[in-house]
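User: I'm putting together notes for a lab meeting next week and I want to include a structural view of one of the chains we've been expressing. I don't have a solved structure, so I'd like a prediction I can at least talk through. The sequence is below, exactly as it appears in our construct file.
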Amino acid sequence: MRRPAILAVDGGGSKLDAALVRRDGTLLGAARIRTVDDDGEPGTDGHMRQILAASRAAVSDAGLDPDRVPFASLGVYCLAGADLPSDDRRIATWLRRHGLTGTDLVRNDTFAVLRAGTERPWGVCVVCGYGTNCSGVAPDGRRFRLPAVGPISGDFGGGGDLGGLALWYAIRDEDGRGVPTSFRRSVPAHFGMRRPFHVMEALYRGRLDEQRLAELAPLVFREAAAGDAVALELVHRQADEVVTMAGAAISRLRMRDLDVDVVLGGGVFRNTWRPFFERIELGMHEIAPRSRVHVLEAPPVAGVALIGLDELGGSRPAQARLRAALTHRRLSSQTSRRRKET
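Assistant: Thanks for the context. Below is the predicted structure for the 342-residue chain, given as structure tokens.
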């Protein structure tokens, strides 16, 4: 069997998806693994060993030898942690040293979301998961991305910020420093506690992981839909930040006059409260009147593979074949099968 054309790897915060693809868009193998936290910097063995594990799993799913490298001619790696140019260089160095693929292309994981959410190789993407990020590609290939490493890079938004602020307002309501809000009741109830103080104490004592505050993001949208003024303010702030980020990308890439696709990906966009999306659409149309806002439905790893097909001059039928095969259902069924086997 000839060497596959593309190894596509999408690495988010909680999972890694990998796919092995032919030049004609045929999906040979796919895998999904859950990631675990480690302290390794991007591009170090601690960070990259899970990428190797996902790649090997996809190769095995294709019926090929996971000990025989290179796995494919072109490797496209869209990874969380590839935030700064120095991260890209470390990751690329590790990939060259291990020879997973003949040629390596490293991108931030937002570029996977962007390509998965549009039929064109250009556009703008905003991701709101635990945190938030934005990237863009112009028709001529120029790229824009934000560092997205938290408040020190000017970021706001995502489940972590929304959940943290929900607790902040709940605490201030309870002790008299703030305005009344339904968060005073709903935030502690989410964690099976009676008072906001108990949530704060659990976080302070280490009995509750701070990352679990991101679980409160859907609650923020529910309380906003129910009319809570504080929750509504948070939702509006998040919508306006999405517009700000996407607008910055559009302006920097000089795409205000184009019918640019704005792709929204991440857990925050899985809510169904229509006024949130209407506010984003209205704000985007004020910046780029012909822009079109989409919520991502395809798995981001499909976008990684499509970037690979773009690099190789893949045809539209090849892209359509890939999209039809590389679905959430395909990845989920493969994951279930691997669990049964182990």
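A couple of points you could mention at the meeting. The radius of gyration is 21 Å. The domain at 6-117+298-341 is CATH 3.30.420.40 (Nucleotidyltransferase; domain 5).

User: Perfect, that's what I needed.
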